[in-house]
Amino acid sequence: MKLQQLLQDPGYKKKFVLEKLLAHFLNKTREELWIDSEFEIDSETLITIQKAYREYVEDEKPLEYILGYVEFFGVKFWVNEHTLIPRPETEYMIS
To answer: What is the torsional sign of CA 37, 61, 70, 27?
Structure first.
């Protein structure tokens, strides 16, 4: 499946989440996704992305836990189900 087809698929209502997952699993920036929209996604990666999207939507699993990291104050922190996810408001409070 081409990247453009997936990005325009009406079944994916949460486009920001889809873009973050695509960028993560394809090792691209969100901007590169739109520039290289003819990129062909292999079936194994597509299944992984679809599974991660379902975890977010159906299981309400935080995106940070799915990705395994969160960016906080410009630094990437690795997270899992045993760690707390820093909130954006905290960045504001400590700046």
So the answer is: negative
* pTM for this predicted structure: 0.87
How large is the angle between the packed helices 43-57 and 15-26, nearest 10 degrees?
140
Write out pLDDT tens, residues 2-43. 889 998 999 999 999 999 999 999 999 989 998 988 999 999
Cα(20)–Cα(2) distance, integer angstroms: 17
Distance of CA 63 to the CA centre of its chain: 7
Instruction: Return the closest-CA partner of residue 12 out of 48, 39, 37, 49.
Output: 49
User: Which of 77, 27, 31 shows the shortest CA–CA distance to 49?
Assistant: 27
The structure tokens listed for 69 are 């990291």
Strands of the chain (E only): list them: 69-72, 75-78
